[in-house]
Every structure is written in C-alpha cells, then in structure tokens.
Amino acid sequence: MAAAQLGRPRSLAILLATGALAPLTALCPPGRLLLPVAMLAVFTTSAGQATLAVLAGQSAPASQRPTAIGLFNLGYQLGGAFGPAIAAPVVLGG
Q1: Pairwise CA distance, residues 48 & 60, whole Å
Q2: Which portions of the chain are predicted below pLDDT 70?
Q3: CB under 8 Å, gap of 24 or more: what pairs does 47-55 form?
Q4: Alpha helix positions (H), 1-94
Q5: For residues 67 and 81, what is the distance between their CA atoms, to the nearest angstrom?
Q6: Which tens digit of pLDDT belongs to each residue from 51-72?
Q7: How many domains does the chain have?
Q8: Cα distances (Å, whole numbers) of residue 76 to 42, 49, 70
Q9: Residue 82: predicted pLDDT
C-alpha cells in the first residue's frame, strides 16, 4: 500500500488536500472539470476509507479489531447517508 510507504501523516495530508481540492475545482466553469472532480472525489473517499480503516484496526487490541473495523465502517456509511441529507437543507437554506 502506498500509504504505508508515505507514512501516516503524509498520507492523511494528501487525502485532506485532495478532499479540499475537489469542491474547489467544481467551482470552475460548468462542465470543464466535472469528470476530473468526480474522479478526485472518488479517489479521496476510497483511499481515505481504506487508510483510516487500517489505522482503526491497528489502534484496537487484537481481540477487538473486528469490532473496531465494523464500527468504523458503520460510521463511514452513516456519514455518507446522513451527510447529504443534512447538507442539502443547509445549502438550500431550508
């Protein structure tokens, strides 16, 4: 895994930078960067989830590792479910 070679702090910094870059590039003229922005967002999401799942697994004792990874994935999926549901009314002002 590339994250192991880069180190945890550098990997997380790269993921945070690409995650912040995706919505900023979406502000460019419509249509020009839509595909690269979507690709960047998907890369950041999938790489971040994998990297942080490994971190969650390593942080837990061996006997609790499956539960820690399961709870991490639950939190990740609930964030994906509730995030847009909360963001839409905030953005739309209602």
Answers
A1: 18
A2: 1-4, 26, 30-31, 94
A3: 47/3, 47/15, 48/15, 48/19, 49/73, 49/76, 50/1, 50/3, 51/1, 51/3, 51/11, 51/12, 51/15, 52/76, 54/1, 54/3, 55/8
A4: 2-6, 8-25, 34-59, 65-92
A5: 21
A6: 888 888 888 999 999 999 999 8
A7: 1
A8: 14, 8, 10
A9: 92
* Host domain of residue 58: 2-92
| Secondary structure class of 89 (helix, strand, coil) | helix
* Distance, CA of 90 to CA of 78 (rounded, Å): 18
Q: Which three-class secondary structure state does DSSP give residue 1?
A: coil
Q: In which element (H, E) is residue 32 found? A: none
What is the predicted pLDDT for the residue at 42? Answer: 85
Written as six digits, the tokens of 17 are 């930078």
Q: Which residue bears the tokens 């002002």? A: 93
Report yes or no on whether pTM surpasses 0.90. no
Closest alpha carbon to 47 in 88, 8, 11? 11
pLDDT of the residue at 78? 92
